[in-house]
Structures are given as structure tokens and as C-alpha cells.
Amino acid sequence: MLAEHGQLTPLDTLAGKDGQLPLPGDALLVMIQPRALSPQENLALDAWVRGGGHLLLFVDPMLTQVSRYALGDPRRPADLAMLSPILAHWGLALEFDEAQPAGERLVRLREGSLPVNLPGRFHLLGNSGDGFPDRGNHGIAAQDARSGKSGDALARCRLESSAILADCVLGRGKVLALADAALFEDPDAGVSLADRRDLLSRLLSRAESGD
Fold it and tell me: With the C-alpha atoms ordered 126, 132, 133, 138, is the resulting torsion angle positive or negative?
């Protein structure tokens, strides 16, 4: 699936020996429920995106599928989202409603129906104030807002679909973040594997574009 969008380059770290993210400056980086990043990796990722890199990020505050990999296995995704420092640096907070009911449901994106299960919600920090309300059929906000606080690498973000999706411009780069990773779980009756692959392809194309 991912190979259809270009050459794949697996990364064990986001900071090489030179302190830089080891990808071309115009590449697309896909991160799905990553482990906590080191300070060096946070700096490398921030600089790479600001320089023109594009990031598609799935960050789930509460994974709902049990991993096949044992605890301590580097292939095992984090059970809880662990990217607060870099998100806050960009002016985003990831919130979780513990009172929401469990179970897969569909959230409408402009690319199609996204399956979610106990999703999070993004909130704009700092001088973005209280953010802005969702509007329209896809929950697309009526206007952009500049998020972050003094000293942060401010991102210009648009929240969509009840704030489950954040579409942000940061310097010359782009961050497309989703607050749920159920898209990669075993297909439920509601969304087939083919439909999930198609939606992922559309999200990859959106993250690659400058739109």
C-alpha cells in the first residue's frame, strides 16, 4: 500500500548522527502510533517539517486492539499517545474523553468515512485562543487559526471532523494529524479492508500535497 506512493525508507530513529532527520527534505514521513521521541528526535522532526517535509501522523490516545507483539518489542505500537512535547511545540494538544462509549464508529472526512474507536480530539493552544468551531458536512472549520505560544514553532492549523483531524502548515512543510489509529485495526463489519486501503491512499495524497 505505502509502496504505491513511492520508495519506502524504514527509520529506526528520526535523528541521524548529524542530528538531522535522514530523509530528503521534500519527502513524506508516515508515523503511526510512534514511541516517545527523544529531545534530539523532536528537534530533527521539527526542523525537517519546517524546511519543507510532509508528515502524516496517526496518534491515538487509547489503542483498542491488542498488539501481536510482546511488551518491549520495538515493533509494538505504544498503547497510549506519547508525542505531547512536539505537538505542544506546534501548538496542538491531544485530548481524550474518558466518558465516551467504546466501539467502532465512522467519522466523515472529505476523503471518506474514517473508522474510529475511542478517538482523541485536538485542541489549539496558546494565542489561538479557544480555537474555532467545526462547520459544514465534513466538520471543516470556517477559518484557520495560528496555534502555539511564544517561543514555539507556530503552525497554522485547521481542525476538521470534530477536531479528530488537524491540517497544519508549519514553515514550508505540512502536518496532517489524526487522533485515532483504528484505520489500521482488523476490519469491522462497517468498513472493509479495501475501503480502508482506499481511504489511507487518499490521506497519503492529501499529506503529500500542499492543499
Answer: negative
CB 123 within 8 A of CB 60: no
Give 139-208 as a DSSP string: TEESS-EEEB-TTS--EEEEEETTTTEEEEEETTEEEEEES--GGGSPP-SSS-HHHHHHHHHHHHHHHH
pLDDT, one tens digit per residue, over 153-171 is: 568 999 999 999 999 999 9
- In order of 36, 113, 137, 196, the CA distances from 191 in angstroms are 30, 8, 20, 7
d(CA 182, CA 106): 10
CA gap 119, 121 in Å, rounded: 7
pTM of the shown model = 0.84
Locate 36 and state its grid cell.
516517545
| Residue for grid cell 493552544 | 125
Average pLDDT over all residues of the chain:
82
Instruction: Report, as an integer, the average pLDDT of 32-37.
Output: 88
pLDDT computed for residue 7 by the predictor? 76
